Predict the structure.
Amino acid sequence: MSSSPSTRICLFSGSSPGASPAHLAAARSLAKTMHEHGIHLVYGGSTTGLIGEVARTLVQLSGKDAVIGVIPSSLLGKERPDTGSAGEKEEAEEQTKLPGNWAKRMGLTSNKGGKLETEPSEDKKAKLLLDKEYGHVLIVSDIQARKKKMMELTRDGGPGSGFVALSGGIGTIDELMEMVSLNQMGAHKRGACVLNVNGFWDGLLAWIEHAAKEKFVRGNSKHILGNVTEAGEVVGWLRGYEEGRKREGGKK
């Protein structure tokens, strides 16, 4: 009998710790909140900055199966500098024993050689490894393959799954807004919210309100992206979004 999928938060954030210590504090607080609620992390696989802090903290609290990073092979050296050399990657692969039951629960299957078995239309270059400090790592061919897999893992998660953005730069906005757009287009039904530390996301939220006022964003669409200021509010917002969709027959 197959078990239900875990609730998953797909997190977007910067590979920098930021100027204010409040950003790192929020990252650690989010990891603790996820641990307390048994929520798993899907993220871009970086080991640096805010995003790396969440992954590392959650592995310490909940174990390696609570985290899966999805990263293009071309970015291993840049986003995982501590595991970026060829020798270190080969050693990691040799030490990896791919967890069949875990992989199946995540919608992944793997063979004994470390290669990820996928559907014919999927990424043939994908490879699943295990990092003791940062959890599972799915290495894919390119940025688009990364975004697609992160969306699918979150879409197929348990109740209350969704997308969250901590403070970050252009890449963070790109990933967050693509997931909002994909919701609009029906590719998934998950909500997204920003964890708004010290007003970091106020400008983006104001732009959405302005775009809605100018009739470039439909009224319902602006509610896809939520705004919370404390890590403890993230879980409730994502659950509330899902419950709101059900009440409104999926129109939200």
